[in-house]
Structures are given as structure tokens and as C-alpha cells.
Amino acid sequence: MKHNYDIRLNPKGISKSEIARHKDFNTLLSKYNQLPQKQPLLRRIVYLGTGIAAVIALVFFAVQIFNPNDNTPTSHEYFAAQPYIHPPLDHIKPNFSTFNIDASTGGVFENLGGSKLTVPAAAFVSHAGEPVHGEVMLHYREMHDFVDFFLSGIPMSYDSAGVQYTLESAGMIEMFAEQDGKRINMAPGKSIGVELISRVNVAPSLGVPSGYNIYKLNVDKRNWEYREIDHMAIISEGIESTTLNETSPLYPARKELQEKMKAITISEATEMAAIEASIPKFQKPIQPQKANGSKHVFDLDFSDLRNPNDTGEYADAQRELAGLYLQYEKMLWQVSPQSNITPEQLKKSFSSVTGIRIRKLNARDFELSLSKGDSQLVVVANPVLSGHDYDKALTEFNKELAAWDQQNAGREARLKTQKEELLRKIAKQKELANLAYEEKLQSLQNQGLADVATDEIIKHKVINRFQATGFGIWNCDRPLPPYIARVKATFKDQHNNPYNYMTGYLVDKSRNTVSRMMVKQNMTFAFNRNSDNLFWIITKDNKIAVFRPNDFKGIKKEDDAYTFVLDKIEREIIDEKDVRELLSL
Amino acid sequence: MNTFQRTVSHEAIETEWSEIQAAQATPALFRPLYNRYFEPIFHFIYKRTLDESLTSDLCSQVFLKAMQRLGGYTFRGVPFSAWLFRIASNEVAQYYRHSNKRRVVALEDSFITGILDDKDESDCRDRYRDAMIVALDDLPEHDLQIIEMRFFEQRPFKEIACLLDITESNAKVRTYRVLERIKKIMSKELGENL
């Protein structure tokens, strides 16, 4: 025998699961992308520059033009071949906030933006389903605008019974928990209460925008799943405290509204004060204070305090104290903590004092000025009682308090009608101011400046409330109808390099979302003609090629076809700040 | 015996051709083809290496080359799988050429009966097996391939023809000739006519 081969008898086979362990298309694709790419066949042919090649190329192009959809992937196929969550710029990593939680007790956690997470006790289990105890790290991040959505790679499309919608978001969150570096799950039946602070597009005159629901991303099924209605509430900020953009065409109208609102607010405060003053407030009785044995307490005879020559606040204080001295057998004084004086110093001062003046500082404290020649010592103290005197004072206080409550209620009842009338009047004034502003907006829209008007009415601060029953990605959003304006589009950059079979991103300023599409030549491109639009592509060398709002204005209503010449920006994209600079809308 | 998922019907080939064209335009669209053929290609290589780790490396190399060469792939009525198996076969051959290792042949007892037309008497099995090993060891690589494909992997002649880029009748003739050669060597080893 020659032993040409290594012949093995009845070798051990290999199972499907063993083979599956080696299956990894993403790694393969990554390796492929790192390889130096050969010029596509078409380009090589063109470079040859021969007549035959030109003819072949012409034939090829003719076929492409007359059969644009032949043998090309559909958008669905294109995205189906990609990971469902596909961040376009891998090197820009999301920033998570981390909360340390005692798994046994849970807790309430608030992030810098004001959003709140309420984690119940015993909310976590291990992968094996065992309860988790001890410290748990909850990682949390929020996504609020189109740049956040774009960088996350989370699709904003929603398939409902085969119909594709784009989801407009009022805020999206992602959260997961770990213990000792291992992911853990939420316990069955438990949920984390989420109060997500965000901003939504809404006209000033409207209330809570409708149609927002809570969806959870199901990565396995590659779709969003409806969970519940979004319990959204607008957080009133008031235009009075808003900084206006002086360069905006709407500035005069906004400024007028702001000034009207400020005047209304001042008027409300003035008139409310006048109503309050129309019936004097009754003085609330002060609860007597019991002498505290651990503090400096001293005795002072009223004759030492009385000075018939004093006027003003000094005379008032003497009158009040005269009543107290008459009422109680033993008036005492307790030194306030703010008087930095020892009992010895106090005793010494009183022994050689030549004059005492007293005035009231607040409802409880008095200021005693002790003088000796040119020197003066100030002591802050308050009257206190002890024993029978205190009991008597307390009984009296309770009677006075009951009477005060009754008097106060009667006063409020008499003022109620006036206050309600004032609030109605103020509300009417605000409504009229808003209506006048709305009319100005309408006027702008009638002048064809609808996009400007839209610009001015977006972004109201809201709070979205829902229960997250599991970790992952949750979205407060609503499905949007498709864009109406359509054009047959081809795409290239300023150097005439065509863009084909790449992912394009489109936003319009009136919608808080980003639409994703497969870019190919002669495709139908839909957009919002009444808003500012921004379209961009991430090129193969990780640069941004952008078609800006002003460029969109060049697409005329009568255009059936349009070549989008994108501005490829030869700038390295390092971080999110770079993306925001390049994709300003 | 693993049954491979083969794309053989005309309709399936046409469908697959559109997938290939999509992948030619966008490499990421190669994923469905990869998913379809990863297991058959892995099996194909594993049978010729019996080394899981080596097979994984070679398999990855096969698909990488397939993606690189996909732009030049044109549809000529031959299943895409055949094109992939050819790359895999070349990759295995290249590995053995460069490593100076002996090519692994996975021989199962059931194959012996398949080759020898029902000569499965248990008392003679060991003798037949030894003779078969001598005969296989004597075959040149291209003949061994035919035997592997036809009897070890139970591929139809049509597919073998596609894989080896020969006609179906040529595949049949070559298989017949290799079988005759095996029988001749085995007869000599056994001292009896088979």
C-alpha cells in the first residue's frame, strides 16, 4: 500500500448544532469589507476605454434603464439581509446611565433629564429564573431626536398587518440590568415604572397630541410590538420664560405673545394681591414654647425692659411683652442658638448692664441689646414658659387656633368669588393672546411660509408614563401616514459618483423620526414638501453625503424625476458631536 | 448520511439567480446564500478533513472567496451550489498541497457494500474493507473524488457532472471506469474475482 491518503474507518460524524457554532455571516462580511475591493466589473470595463467595452457598457446601461427593477434586490430583501439593529457608524457607541439598585428593595431613580424609573422590590431574576439578591446595575439610555435614532440603528418602521408605517417618537429608551457582569432578567409579573421626559411636536393651541402608544422592539420578529396607550401629559413651561430666536421670521409674533403673557401674569399677581388685601388676614396664633432644660434660660423682670421713651418697634415689643408678663406667673427667656454666648458671659453682662432695649425679630424671637457705656452686647432670645404657665398657654393657644381656623375659612369664602372671577378673566386674556398668535401663524401659512410656521410650533415638553415589563428597547410613538410628494430619484455626489444599493436616511423637521430606505437609481422617493427635509447617506468610507433643506427647495412641484446631488463631506466622523454638526436641520 | 439542501429545480435556480444578483450589488445580501449553503459546504469539507476547527477555517475561506468572486459569476443554468462546491474542493486540495499532509478519506462500512453491489457478507467484510482501503489508496485524486461524491455522499450523476464541470454521461463513464479499477485492485488483493 502506498499510503497516499489518510483513510479513516467509520469516523465520528458532526451534528447540525456543532456546525451551527461556526456559522457567522457578520464576521464573514466584516472580513470581506476589510479586504481591498476589486473594481466592479462594470467600472473595469469602462476603464478599458475600448470601443467594444463602451458598447457593452451602453448595452448594460440600456438594460438597466429600461428594466430598472430587473434582478435587483427589493428594499425588503436589502434590509432583511442586515442585522435588524444596525448602527450605521459602529465606532460611535451609545452612552448609558448606570443606577446601582438593591434588588431586594428596588427604588426610584432619576436621570439628569428628569426622567424617572421606579423599580419595585424583587424585580430581577437570573437566566435560570432564580431571584436575584444584592446590588444590581441598571443600565439606561434615552433617545430623543433623529440623530439619536439614526446613530442607534434602531429601525423606526412598523409593520402592521403587512402595511409599513414610520413611527414618530415621543422618546425611546433602552435598558438592561447586570449583576457581576452577567445580564439578568426582569422577574415575571414585575415591571419598572417609567416616566420619560421628552418633547413632542405639537401646535401651541393644542392639548396632548393624540395617537401615541407604547411599543417594544422584538428583535427576533424584526418588528415593534404594541404594548399599551402612552399616558402622556404636557409639562407647562410658559412662553414667558422662553428665550426667543430673534432671527426667526416669527419673532415679532412670538415677542408680542411673550409680552402679552408677561403683562397678563403681572396683572394677575397685582389683582390677586388687591383681593387678598381687601379683607385683612387674621394673625395666626403662635404656639407657646416650653422651656428647654438643656438650653440657656434666664429670668428677666419686665421693669428692666420697660422704657417709656421708646417708640416704634421697640414700643410695640414692650406692649406685647407687658401682656405676656401679666398673663403668666413666670416669664422666662431662652437664648437662641444663633446667639453665640455662654451662660457665664450672659450673667456677667446682665450684672453690669446700664440699659436694655428690645425689639421683635419674628413671630417668636426678640433681640435684646445690652449696653454698658459705649459697648453693646446683642442677644437673641424668645419667651418660654414652664409648668403650669405652659399648660395654661397651650390651652389658650388651642382655643385661639380653632377660632383662627374659623375666621380664616370665612375670609376665604368671602374672597372665593372674587378670586374665581379673576382667574376666569386671566384665562380669557391668555386665550385671546394665543388666538391672536395663531392667526399670525395662519397668515404665515397662507403666505406659503408653512414650513416656518411648522418650525415654530414644534417641541413641547411632555412626560410619557408606562410600565416596562421587560428589558430592551421601548418607544413612545405613533404611526405616521406616508409622504405624498414623490419623485423618481437618482443619487450621486458632487464628483458624479453614483449612489446605488446603499442605505439613505430622510428626516423632515415636523416629524420626530428618521426614515430609512434602500437607495437605488430611478427609485420612487417620497418626502414632505411642506417642511424642511434632510437626506443623507453614509458612504463606504464612513463619510456623510448630505442633501440639505435648501437643496430640497430646488425640487419643483412639476418635477417627475430628479437627480439628488449629495454633498459628500470629506471629514472624519469621530463622535456624535460631529454627526450633529453635519446633520443640522 | 447528510442530505444536502440542493437547488436543482429550474424555478429554484431562477430564484437563486436573483438573489445572487442582489448580492453582487450589495455584499450584505449574500447572507441568504450563506445561510443556505453553509451546512452543506461545511459537511463537504469536514468529510475531507475530519477536523472541525480546520473545516471552520476552510469553510470561512470558501465563502470569503465566493463573495470576492461573485461579481464574475454568471448564470449558465448550473446551480450556484456547484460553483460553491468547486471553490470548496479547490480550497481543500490547496490546503493539502501546502500543508504536505495526507488527504483524509472518511470511509464507512456502508460505502463498501454500495461500491461492491450487495457483497455484504459479514464474514468477508474485514477482508473486503482492507482490500478496499488498498484500492482507494491507489486512486489518483480526481478518481477518488468521483467515488466520494457518488458513493460516500450519494450525489446524482447530474450533480457530480456539475461539480466537476463535465457532462453527465462523462461522469457516468468515469465512475464506471474507477469502479472497475477498484474492483481490479481488490480482486488482486483478495485473490478472487469480484
Key traits:
heterodimer; A: 585 residues; alpha+beta; nine-stranded antiparallel β-sheet; seven-stranded mixed β-sheet; 30% strand; elongated; B: 194 residues; mainly alpha; 9 helices; disordered N terminus
Question: What report would you give on this structure?
Answer:
The complex is a heterodimer of chains A (585) and B (194). Helices cover 32% and strands 30% of the residues of chain A. Chain A has 585 residues and is an alpha+beta fold. In chain A, the strands form 4 sheets. In chain A, strands 2, 5, 6, 7, 8, 9, 11, 12 and 20 form a 9-stranded antiparallel sheet that branches. A 7-stranded mixed sheet of chain A has the order 23-22-25-26-27-21-24. Chain B is mainly α and 194 residues long. Chain B is elongated, with a radius of gyration of 18 Å. Chain B starts with 9 loop residues before the first helix and ends with a helix. The chains are: A alpha+beta (585), B mainly alpha (194). β1 (5-9) of chain A pairs parallel with β1 (103-107) of chain B, so a sheet runs across the interface.
Q: Determine the strand fraction of chain A and express it as a percent band.
A: 25-35%
Distance between the termini of chain A: 78 Å
Number of helices of chain B: 9
Radius of gyration of chain B: 18 Å
Which range best describes the helical content of chain A: under 10%, 10-25%, 25-40%, 40-55%, 55-70% or over 70%? 25-40%
Number of helices of chain A: 14
What structural category do the secondary elements of chain A indicate? alpha+beta
How much is the average pLDDT of chain A? 82
Biggest sheet descriptor of chain A: 9 strands, antiparallel
Which segments of chain B are poorly predicted (pLDDT under 50) over 5 or more consecutive residues?
1-7
Q: Tell me which protein chains meet in the greatest interface and how many residues each side has.
A: A-B, 39 and 50 residues
Let me know the average pLDDT of chain B: 83
Order of helices and strands of chain B: HHHHEHHHHH
Helix coverage percent of chain B: over 70%
Principal-axis shape of chain A equals elongated
* Main sheet attributes: strand count, strand direction, barrel closure of chain B: none
Calculate the terminal CA-CA distance of chain B, rounded to whole Å. 26 Å
Looking at the chains present, what oligomeric state does this protein adopt? heterodimer
What is the count of β-strands of chain A? 27
Secondary structure category of chain B:
mainly alpha
Q: Tell me the radius of gyration of chain A.
A: 38 Å
